[in-house]
Design brief:
By secondary structure, this protein is an alpha+beta fold. 37% of the residues lie in helices and 29% in strands. The chain is elongated and about 60 Å long.
Length: 87
């Protein structure tokens, strides 16, 4: 499902016009991105979580260059809540 599909579904089920729904979804995504960039985790009860995980420094070896290492990096992760996905 794409963002456009989500906008269409919400617009259809609530009667709110697509422009307002799209603006709300964009603002939600922007807020989550800003929180993650500041190192804050986002937890949505009944949906899942968005967290940042710091990956440790690792040695980087390339055949023709001297040994070096890659710095610590933070990468965003998302995980769905287990009970929300019923089969």
């Amino acid at each position: 499902m794409t963002k456009a599909d989500i906008v269409n579904e919400i617009s259809k089920s609530t009667g709110i016009d697509k422009a307002n729904v799209l603006e709300t979804i964009e603002k939600f995504m922007e807020t989550v991105k800003e929180s993650l960039s500041h190192g804050e985790n986002v937890y949505l009860r009944g949906f899942g979580s968005f967290i940042t995980k710091v990956r440790s420094e690792k040695p980087a070896t390339f055949p023709k260059t001297p040994p070096s290492s890659s710095p610590n990096t933070a990468s965003p992760l998302s995980s769905p809540q287990r009970c929300s996905w019923k089969r």
